[in-house]
Specification:
10% helix, 47% strand, mainly beta, eight-stranded antiparallel beta barrel, 158 residues
């Protein structure tokens, strides 16, 4: 079984941008979303994957990822996936031995920026970057699958 342990955070400011080592544009759509799991198709740069992820709330979830032809993935996104699709740019930032993935959302989720850190253990210690904000790992609104059904543009001010 594949397991992903991922923590999600908001960011306090844009100072992380100065440390971006690379970035990739991502389009992803969801073929299915149930109370137990989701099936998504993602095109990330020139690569594409079919991904199955459990809907467990929290930082540890089952995840399975399989490469597929990019043309097939684009056809599935255009013809089979729930709308709207997720459109984002993923920025990679190295900080004190960890690689942070900072997702800057576009389209209907524009304005949302989420920093993610994959760790080996739920209790793994890490040095938080100065731009790191509130942890939102346990808030389902920040899950990409939830952003399809309840986009950031529909949220009221917190």
């Amino acid at each position: 079984m594949a397991t992903e342990i991922e923590r999600k955070f908001l960011v306090n400011d844009d100072s992380w941008r100065a440390s971006v080592s690379r970035k990739v544009d991502i389009i992803q759509g969801y073929l299915a979303n149930t109370e137990r799991g989701s099936i998504r198709v993602r095109v990330s740069g020139s690569a594409a994957n079919l991904n199955i992820k459990s809907m467990t709330l929290g930082v540890t979830r089952q995840e399975y990822d399989y490469p597929i032809p990019a043309n097939d993935a684009r056809a599935m996104i255009d013809g089979l996936c729930m709308q709207p699709v997720i459109d984002k740019t993923r920025h990679y930032v190295e900080y004190n031995g960890h690689t942070w993935e900072i997702d800057e959302f576009h389209g209907i989720n524009a304005g949302l920026i989420v920093a993610e850190l994959e760790v080996d253990r739920e209790d793994e210690a890490f040095d938080p970057p100065p731009w790191l904000g509130k942890e939102v790992s346990d808030d389902p609104r920040y899950y990409n699958v939830c952003l399809v059904e309840y986009p950031y543009s529909d949220w009221s001010e917190e």
